Amino acid sequence: MIKFGSEHGEVNTIYYITLDLEWNQAERRRTNTNIPFEIIEVGAVKLDESWNVVDHFSMLVKPRVYPHLFPKVLEIVNITENELHRKGKPFATVMKQFWDWCSATGDYLLCTWGTMDITELLRNINYYHLKCPLKHPVFYSDIQKIYSLQYSDGKKRCSLETAADELQLTETLQFHRAHADAYYTALVMQRLDRHLVDMYLSLDYFHLPANASEEVHMVFDTYSKYVSRVFPDKEAAFADKEVISCTCYLCNTPIKKTIPWFSYLGRYYYCGGKCPTHGWIRSKIRLKKADSDHHVYVVKTTKVVLQSDIDDILEKREEVREKRRKHLEALDPNTTPPAGKNNDTYK
Ligand SMILES: [Zn+2]
Fold this sequence. Notes:
By secondary structure, the protein is of the alpha+beta class. It has helices at residues 71-76, 81-87, 91-103, 116-127, 143-151, 160-166, 178-189, 194-199, 234-238, 241-244, 307-331, and strands at residues 14-25, 37-47, 53-60, 107-112, 139-142, 202-203, 216-219, 223-227, 257-264, 268-275, 279-289, 296-304. The chain contains 11 helices and 12 strands.
């Protein structure tokens, strides 16, 4: 799937960089929607190929959009306004030094605790129209997710402090400073299965695929994932062949849908069918709002599933139909919708 290396196919040394940001926000109703969270500190730890900590990065950013620290931020983050204005450098300067530091040793993969840091980093970069050396869309490792995959059910998300406690890490630094949190993220990472970190890369959705050639197709051990380009609306998305296709990711066979796409709870769409070689295949679409206007994009995951999973999907479909029947009956008791139809079915 995702390969790191130079354009000539030669794989350079990959460094892993755990990154943590602290940010500030506006007092009530004064938010600049282009930059709801202004980064005030960047902290990072560099690990070599064997995951030894080899370097640190720590810089404060002088705030420009929100000069006063939000009370809640003051409470959590251990930085004073005075310190920030005295020691902080302009965001552009901090980013320049950060990218130089990142790339000084070769290729690198950014690793964060959770999904917010990369998005807010890109949003801040975008706000100041700075150059970003990361290719879009940005792949990174969400260590919080990997921690859950290895130590929990893969779905729960715990705080960095909880993970540090559970792993009995010696906690000498105070949490909620960027350099400290980046360091703890590195320590947690050192206790993770490397295969999981390399395999389950996350994708940041701040810069969405602009056209079909930028769309993302990923194949993991147990599922595949597709991220579409941005569409003007839901109807346009569901008119797209790639969006509504269902393909077995193990053998690339197009699947004939015995369960055509249907919507569930307004946010999810399911379909299913059988691969002659690999059995039941289920695709699930999450329709997501793009940042601007009413534009949408699609995240589709496809999985080989068991008969019981297909039964679950059929149950969901029945639930949808039942709701619709009741709704129509309430409008006009004499109307019964034709069997097997609902408004949100797509072939
Ligand atoms: Zn197959």
